[in-house]
Amino acid sequence: MSASLKKTVLLPQPRRVSPRHGALVLPATGRIVCAGDVAQLLPLAQQVQGDLAQLQQVHWELGAGEGGMVRLGLRRGLPAQGYRLDIGEKGIELSGGDLAGVRYGVQTLRQLLRQCQGALPLGRIEDHPDFAVRGVMLDVTRDKVPSLPTLYALADKLAEWKFNHLELYTEHTFAYRNHREVWAQSSPYTGGDILQLDAHCRSRGIELVPNQNSFGHLHRWLELPRYRDLAECPDGFDFPWGRSEGPFSLSPAHPGSLKLIGELFDELLPHFSSQKFNVGCDETFDVGQGKSKALCEKKGKGRVYLDFLKQIYRLVRRHGRTMHFWGDIIIEHPELVKELPRDVVVLEWGYEAHHPFAEHGAKFAEAGLPFYVCPGTSSWNSIAGRTRNCLGNLQSAAQNGLKNAAVGFLMTDWGDNGHWQYLPVSYLGFAAGAALSWCRASNEGADWAPALDLHAFGDRAGVMGRAAVALGDAYLRTGHQPHNSSPLFHIIQRPLNQKLHRAVTEKRLVATREYIEAAAAPLSLARMEGVEGALVRDEYANTLALLRHACERGLALRQGTVGRSGVKRRLAAELRQILGEHRRLWTSRNREGGLQDSAGRLERRLAEYTG
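Above: the chain sequence. Below: its structure as tokens.
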């Protein structure tokens, strides 16, 4: 049993904890009482009942009215989404300012039951969130389409960590009835899938928000003959960092663009109970380079973007929804920000620790626009994550979001370039994001490893969390920190004729390899149980194999030995095993669609060794 309520490990750490001496011994029998609206409180009481049975081996009855060892109800005067949890000598009183507050108090109680065997330490917890909306956006387009059981389990975890918003980033992975050729190889979500997931999330206090990119990032549509004429640049365009040989964005100058978007909205939106809708509209790099060039020269590129955005807005309003959109393009034209409709929500995203959340948020706040801060897990383009950058990014978003009165905090988790990272690599970002968006003051600077072990990995040995945090910092040892990525990822992703950054020396690659081995050494002691525990072990084993392979490939490139047949055979054997495991692990959590794209990137590297 924990000696003090202050010493318990909670995620998020509450705003105020007032411990008292003593403990409440949990008797073999007792009652959990719903004091109020039984229909609403009963599912929460059942969660407590289930955890008492599973974690404490005591079997308590459910009831309503007076008395009870645990009493759940509402109390006037508590903040919205806030709760008060009193653990006394005679029982537990859990009061919420609203139903959400009771729900969050129940999650805190459940976490206490997970770590305090036989008795709970006495005291009071008083808590409420900094941000009204605390969400996660999961990329289900590049390339992983998680299975429904995976999404259900993740939603359960996020609900325990007090998230209340979930969205699935979509380009082409919803099964639109009249557009089969777009999603045929992608294992998309059907309308029935969404209805089930929406109900699951709603029952856990999470709002499932529709998401459909509606301007840029539509290359999988526009590459097909049926939609090619709608592309701004059907034959390619210039990115800020290079040339693309294919289409990317809808053309705002083509009347058919809006017609297509309207058709998609009409089919997608009825499957969601949420009144919010994220229409994307980010990174429209090619606008002004093709069909809309003359229009942009006449009116200005920013004005053309805004006019098309307003047309999308009218489609969204036709469905009675509130439009959310990424703010990266409009912030480049600050003189136009004030012309946005007052009831849109701007999503201010940025994934580096130094992203200007303060500057951008101030501009949206000055214009009177509601906005979310949108940091990321830093898991993508990384293999094992980027721990230091992730935490810096999250802390900056929370601090500057509060400073500029952001109305929401949306974690993003992307899958660029093959989605090679496994889901548990993102747990650190999800957990820290949950905590910092709930109460920055009590969670900033936290040691995340114990919380991950207890509430994410279920590792009774207390090993996995520390290893995950440490492995996420392996990229720092290379001496190079490229934007939004890790050098170790790029060493595998790029062909053998690549030139390594001058900072990535042979000495640093050796040091990186040694760091990885030291960080991974304790993993054999981990005690994660069940199917999930075995899967996490295997996922991190392949993560380690990828990290090691990156080091060995990099060393061969730096030493000039990569052309030797013996070196190639060794690298090929390593990568062949990694590839086989990657395929197996993919289908443990995800549908098959997208696997060939992801595995194909590794197969191209394998062909370099064997060709």
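DSSP finds 20 helices and 17 strands in the chain.
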